[in-house]
Amino acid sequence: MWRWLICGLAGMAVGIGSAFSISGGWLSEASIVSGKWSTDPTVGAAAANPWVRATIARVGLLALTKEETIYFNRELDEDGAPLVETCTYALSGQALPTRWWSITIYGADQMLPVNTDKASSIDATRALPAGATSWTGSLSANRPATGQWLSSKGGGRFSLTIRLYNPQSVDRAFLEGLNLPQVKKLSCSGAVAGVGGKK
């Protein structure tokens, strides 16, 4: 009887741990960090463990092979604070050693924020016209007068994903040395439901 009880408790512990791992993010111990951006090199690789595969299935990430696309994610600004809808951020970046890139905003549910702004992504084509080597933009709930813009309206506490298509290399040292876009907080106002216990 005790044997069955112990086995049952062990099974529950494994199940809860797996659920926590899946809901908490898809990065593994092998994650690569570049600034406040991070990636799991097993995404899109045969070596992906069951938790990475399950999380990809849950969030609907279309994971190409890592030679085709590297996915970096971030949930924090340059000061290490969570990215939230009620704050305005300055974006800045430069040309990257990859064929093309795009940055997309995702809400806490891993879906695009629900709004009508049609500004859920920025890409290399728009941000870097011919001859340009650097770019700037903004990330906020309100549309700026000019410039590149990501709308966080309806995003709550959100995250950003940058996709690097056909990167020059997929070696760890190369990826860790990338100078990926910065996200600097400029100002904040109000409160976001579900963030910091505020309603």
UniProtKB/TrEMBL annotation:
It comes from the Bacteria. Residues 68-168 form the DUF1214 domain. This is DUF1214 domain-containing protein. It comes from Candidatus Phycosocius bacilliformis. The lineage of its organism: Bacteria, Pseudomonadati, Pseudomonadota, Alphaproteobacteria, Caulobacterales.
